[in-house]
Design goal:
By secondary structure, the chain is of the alpha/beta class. About 40% of the residues lie in helices and about 20% in strands. It has a domain at about 1-185 and about 220-245 and about 285-300: Rossmann fold. The chain has helices at about 10-20, 40-45, 45-50, 65-75, 90-95, 95-115, 150-170, 195-200, 220-235, 250-265, 285-295, 300-315; strands at about 1-5, 25-30, 55-60, 80, 120-125, 175-180, 180-185, 205-210, 215, 220, 240-245, 250, 270. The structure holds nicotinamide-adenine-dinucleotide (NAD). The site of nicotinamide-adenine-dinucleotide has 29 residues, from helix 1, strand 2, helix 6 and strand 5.
């Protein structure tokens, strides 16, 4: 079996690569090392994988269908985890066209190659943000997702819909996995907790929507997400959409207090109104994931944040002052 991971140098993708390599699988990563955050960080994400004989890195853009066809032809992946995306919610307002080109057009390229090369199992990464602003909690996979709050969310919804159409027409077994606020070592610098830590270390204020009060996020540890994706790659499903969350939303002001306690740095909080792109709460119903994938997240937010902090302290601060 050969596993292709698109976006394999990114936060989630690099952890998935490490987990599959640890099992002795052959892994091919495709990534274009774009500048959304530093490509050097992405190369460091792959440092351990690059030491493994079963690992191949291909620098290519998923919008380049000829380059991707070459990858499928050269490596004949049996399993594909499609994680490459432009992933920032707020950045998608400034650059909707590139979000559409990568997240919709690029996904179409992957779906088409998965069909032409008769991939055995395809997993497509989506997001809790497709649920938009809703008071119905927790979020179930069958809930309405036709009112996304940002171009990013709209493009991920479009990718989900295309994945269904391709499965319907060509039968490639496909699981769409909706991730809920992933955090942990190698976390993206544009996301909490990395963004908050950067400001706390510099003594700069952190911006908290609504002051972090009555604002809840279902923070999910990256190791649990990777276990869910690996289970989806191994599952024998036709077409399914599955939430991968922690099912325990944390109020943002409590999250910041925990980060302060673990890191020893104080946060200066600047409360701002909730922007139109942000829901008040995210909260995964994970019963379907448990039933179909045996998904069972095991890392609570205190333990997960401690692991994030250990990584951040070493990787970002170089082991310096704490
Ligand atoms: N991190 C989260 O909390 C979260 C939540 C919901 C959904 N997701 C989804 O999970 C997936 C992985 O997210 P992440 O947090 O690891 O983000 P990330 O930005 O760290 O990883 C994405 C990777 O894709 C690569 N990429 C982007 N455009 C590309 C292109 N055109 N061609 C080839 N490679 C390209 C980037 O260089 C990056 O390495 C994404 O699909 C994202 O939408 C993430």
């Amino acid at each position: 079996m050969t596993y292709l991971i698109t976006g394999g140098a990114g936060f989630v993708g690099s952890h998935l690569a490490d987990a599959l390599l640890a099992r002795g699988e052959r892994v091919v990563c495709v990534d274009n090392f774009n500048g959304y955050y530093t490509p050097e960080r992405k190369r460091r994400n792959l440092a351990a994988a690059l030491e493994q004989p079963g690992f191949t890195l291909v620098e290519a853009d998923i919008r380049d269908s000829a380059a991707l066809e070459q990858v499928f032809s050269d490596y004949k992946p049996t399993h594909v985890a499609h994680l490459a995306a432009m992933a920032g919610v707020r950045a998608s307002i400034a650059q909707p066209a590139i979000y559409e080109a990568v997240n919709v057009g690029g996904t179409l390229t992957i779906l088409d190659l998965a069909r032409r090369f008769a991939v055995e199992n395809l997993v497509v990464a989506s997001t809790s943000s497709v649920y938009g602003q809703t008071t119905k909690l927790p979020f179930e996979e069958g809930d309405p997702t036709d009112r996304p709050l940002s171009p990013y969310s709209a493009t991920k919804k479009a990718a989900e819909v295309l994945a269904y159409t391709y499965h319907h027409l060509y039968g490639v077994p496909t699981t769409v996995v909706r991730f809920f606020t992933v955090y942990g070592p190698r976390g993206r610098p544009d996301m909490t907790p990395h963004l908050f830590m950067d400001r706390m270390v510099k003594g700069e204020p952190i911006t908290l929507f609504n002051g972090g009060i009555n604002l809840y996020r279902d923070y999910t540890y990256v190791g649990d997400i990777v276990a869910g994706v690996a289970a989806a790659l191994a599952a024998n499903l036709a077409f399914e959409i599955v939430n991968l969350g922690n099912a325990q939303p944390v109020q943002l002001c409590d999250f910041v207090q925990l980060l302060e306690r673990i890191s020893g740095y104080q946060a200066i909080i600047e409360a701002v109104p909730l922007p139109a792109t942000e829901p008040l709460t995210t909260f995964a119903d994970t019963r379907k994931a448990r039933r179909l994938l045996g998904y069972h997240p095991t890392t609570g937010v205190e333990e997960g944040l401690s692991r994030f902090w250990a990584w951040y302290h070493h990787e970002v601060l170089g082991g310096g002052r704490r």
